[in-house]
Design brief:
Elements lengths: L6 E3 L6 E3 L3 E6 L5 E4 L7 E6 L2 H9 L2 H6 L5 H14 L1
Antiparallel strand pairs: 1-2, 3-4, 3-5
Helix pairs in contact: 1-3
Length: 88
């Protein structure tokens, strides 16, 4: 039987892609929201395409707010944008 490939939906554009193609945004139990480059850290994860546009869309359509069921301050998005640029 073929191995099932885990698919995830981008909280920015809503497209389904494989987990490996996506960036994982993590909300840790302690609270801070950060990029999880390994995809292995503990906490609630939301997925974004590896595209700055999708991060901007997620900010506009409140995709991360819905995923994490909390309001997210603008500086968190700014920090994610910086991390995004560093990871490319």
């Amino acid at each position: 039987m073929a191995k099932k490939i885990p698919m995830r939906q981008c909280v920015g554009c809503g497209e389904m892609k494989t987990k490996k193609e996506m960036m994982r945004v993590l909300k840790t139990p302690e609270g801070p929201i950060c990029l999880d480059t390994t995809g292995k850290k503990n906490g609630r994860g939301a997925y974004l395409c590896r595209d700055l546009e999708c991060l901007k869309k997620a900010a506009k359509n409140k995709g991360l707010e819905r995923s994490f069921k909390m309001s997210i301050p603008a500086e968190v998005y700014e920090a994610l944008e910086r991390e995004f640029e560093d990871s490319e």
